[in-house]
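Blinded run. Sample ID left blank on purpose so nobody reads anything into the name before looking at the predicted structure. Input follows.
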Amino acid sequence: MSLPKRDGVHDRYYLIHKPDTSPEVLAEADLCIQDVLNGTARENHSAYPTVVRNHNGTPFLPSQLLERYLSKLPLKGFPYEEAVTFCDALRRLVGWQEIRYKLEKYIEKQVQERYFLVGEREDGFTVFPPCTVLPELRPEDVDEGLLRFACYVAICHTVYGQSFESLTTEHILGLVSQLRPDMVKQLKTAGSGKLPKEIQQRKTEHFIASANDAFAAIRITARDSTEECYAEILDYLCAVLEQEEFPRSYSVEFRGKEKLYLPIPGLPKKGVNQLFACAVQHPNLHPAMERYARLAMREFEWYQNLADEACAMPGTFAVFALGLEGPKWWRLVCDYLDRCDDEHSSLQEKFLHILFKQYGFTAQSLPVLVHGVQSMQNLKPAKEFRALIANEESLDALLEIKGHLEYYLPEESGNDKRALAYLWCDVLWAIWGTASENGGSKVIKTAPKELKEKYQQVFA
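Blinded prediction complete.
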């Protein structure tokens, strides 16, 4: 079969949504859809834009393949299981972000606009318009399979999307709940049903827990305060996060009898703080805490029940608890800091203040500071830092850092003198604050005589 030539703009893929698209191209697109289902379609991993190729090598945009597939499905007797099978296969092949928008628009058109009276947004802050069920809508006009598919799309936004996509989840489930409240109630009770039963609910002598992937929530109640109790809880948390279907941003709601919190002023006194403050008392549990932290830490993901200035990446409280236990865990701390969203995350400043007040500035601790200043904007010093750095050992360790600063930058920036200078200024600011400006003249002027030369080298 001879395919039409592609124009210069779209020479890397065929467009299939135009009215004049040739039958040959559409036949190849349908073949590509079947290959997605069969697992024989291929995706280009490096080129832009992402395309999907059928076994003949004919390339298409994934969003257009999805649009063509959905357009052929009946809205009465909607084949929910078949649609989910195709969407899951395409998502695994190209990633959620390639199909997210098209699925959202499909639900908007086929559910929101067909079943609801769509109002106007009253202000610039609400993301979605108010929707009320059409007064003339009859129950038999609402297709159950289509609503189940809407729930699937809603859950995908939470499970596979970025944290803000949970707003779309809430909106779509809000639509469905106006038509079939029982369907949403079932999701609230058991989630999507994809998690194993022993993950959805777990009850032992020591604790009771549940995990809901639809609402990205883990709820845990400790029945006692023993090491065995916290060991089982940590094992459960890890088992939940090892489930591919569980969201990467989620909430941990913990209740326990021990009202302990991490000794870091300003941290939110939430259950997840309490959990790891209690668990860290037991050295035998430290490896399990690290295991949880490494499973949990993901850039641009968040604990969903912490907001605004208290927002924190999953794993935060486990990392902070272990970090205060000493140098053995500082590699974990650095790995955590490297993943922090430097535009939105700032809780680490409170942790770093306590860490350095506790351990001072040493050859082991100073690398944590360098990772810390790169983890957020404008890491401020604690007032004790000037005194803690004012000794020969600490200044020598700082000079050693200065001599190998390129190790802390990406390989492509390691020889960039400007990037090195900016990073060093940030490190100095994190110790001395405004006194580090103007070449540290104030710091050098007031330095003890025996240390003045080292201060001069630091600020040179």
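Unblinding after everyone has recorded impressions. The longest strand covers residues 207-212.
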